[in-house]
Design goal:
single chain; alpha+beta; two-stranded antiparallel ribbon; 16% strand
Length: 146
């Protein structure tokens, strides 16, 4: 779902009040264009709008997530990250050693999704997630250390 007006209309249609605080939080996410923690979002909106409190940010993020307006991903850094949902699924490889995050082409995961459905009759929600491991540089460092 994209576009400020489309999102606001969706929220109204589904019975949510479109408060100034919710709009400010939504705009902060749209401006960022990438992953942000709840604390990042709170700091960003609080800098311009000091009356917004932390619980409002968390409640709004929860509601936006339930409405599939934003995605929630655990990138293994101690807190989840939020970003605007997109029409195209995307995924991340996260190095557990250096923390480097790279995107993964969804086409690589579609066969897994199809296999799970065929073999187990399990429809996997593979829209946005992280795969943890070691990047090439960290693998090399470990090899040389041994």
């Amino acid at each position: 779902m994209s576009g400020h007006t489309t999102i606001v209309n969706h929220l109204r249609r589904t019975g949510y009040r479109v408060t100034p605080q919710r709009v400010i939080i939504l705009e902060a996410l749209q401006r960022q264009g990438g992953h942000m923690t709840a604390e990042d979002i709170y700091a960003r909106v609080r800098a311009e709008h000091p009356y917004i409190n932390r619980s409002t940010v968390y409640r709004t993020l929860d509601m936006l997530s339930k409405e599939n307006i934003i995605t929630v991903t655990d990138l293994g850094k101690g807190s989840v990250h939020y970003e605007m949902s997109s029409d195209e699924p995307h995924h991340h490889m996260v190095c557990q050693q250096c923390g480097k995050v790279e995107e993964v082409d969804h086409a690589l995961l579609e066969p897994l999704q199809n296999s799970l459905l065929r073999k187990y009759k399990f429809k996997a929600n593979i829209e946005h997630f992280a795969i943890f491991g070691l990047c090439h540089k960290c693998q090399e460092k470990l090899r040389k250390a041994r």
